[in-house]
Amino acid sequence: MAVSLATLVEEADRYLNAGKIQDYCPNGLQVEGRPQVGRIVTGVTASQALVDAAIEARADLLLVHHGYFWKGENPCITGMKQRRLKALLKHDISLLAYHLPLDVHPEVGNNVQLARQLHIEVEGLLDPANPRVVGLLGALAEPMRARAFAAWVGQVLGREPLLVDTDRLVQRIGWCTGGGQGYIDQAAAAGVDLYLTGEASEQTFHSARENGVAFIAAGHHATERYGVQALGDYLARRFAVEHLFIDCPNPV
What we know:
Keywords: Metal-binding. InterPro entries: DUF34/NIF3, DUF34/NIF3_sf. 37% of the residues lie in helices and 25% in strands. It is an alpha/beta fold and 252 residues long. The strands form three sheets. The chain has a six-stranded mixed β-sheet, with helices on both faces. The two termini are 37 Å apart.
């Protein structure tokens, strides 16, 4: 079966409340392809490798978390950007991208989906007073040492994480997928035992040590693989179309 591109985009925008979330890039349809969608390919980032894989898979629509046209980037369609867009347009493939709307969604969001993968019970927002902080707070059913939890994270995500403070006993956790290392101070203020995100900055080590919080950087890409899959599954069920997730490995 197939659904009109306009209908699918309208539903995705509505479901994610995309129009009401301020972001660093346009959310929704970024490149318009053929008017009917029968096969969706999802992935984390609309890299050339993922675009090529979507072409090989005969996708009508490519749905990603990291799309194009970020604030502050050079707007000229040259080089890498030209090659990516040329490939999409040549093969009449639409590009649909959701950044922050896909991080914060309570059902298919990256943060909620990562919690489900790691068996963390969600309790609420990392910083309820500041909606710009998109991380969450939660807890493990049973406490474990930070070293053991890091091993579990590595097993689930298929990537050895960076760990600071290996011996701390962990039950209460704060997390934000992707590049959320800047929220470690909010996590410490919320009283967590451990803060987990995708990346680390030089100062993150000192914040963790001096605030008495264990810290895990599990990979930007690795922590953000699950939201886009869940959204793709939702749209596939909603419109009875095909959905294929393609993971283009990224060690960062």
